Amino acid sequence: MRAPENCTTMAELREAIDALDEDLIALLARRAEYIDRAAVLKQGEGLPARIGPRVDEVVAHVRGAAKARGLEPDLAEGLWRELIEWSIAREERVLGKT
Question: In this structure, is the dihedral angle defined by the CA atoms of residues 47, 34, 29 and 68, taken in order, positive or negative?
Fold first, then answer.
């Protein structure tokens, strides 16, 4: 894949963005597999879907990772909070709401 600065046409740039989008979808699908496993493990350990301190930990980690990569931390946090809420809802289908 070309680096952004090596894209000389919008077609090349769009091709690269589309490829990145495919990679992001693959990673999100893989993350969902871990969420499904978390639900099974939480059920066995008697844990709820939402664990507030863990949510805070994930958000802090993502904000730091975004900042280190030059990405706006508020954007990363907003995206991840949506992802976290989706993940909790997914776990609650197995665990029930608490």
Answer: positive
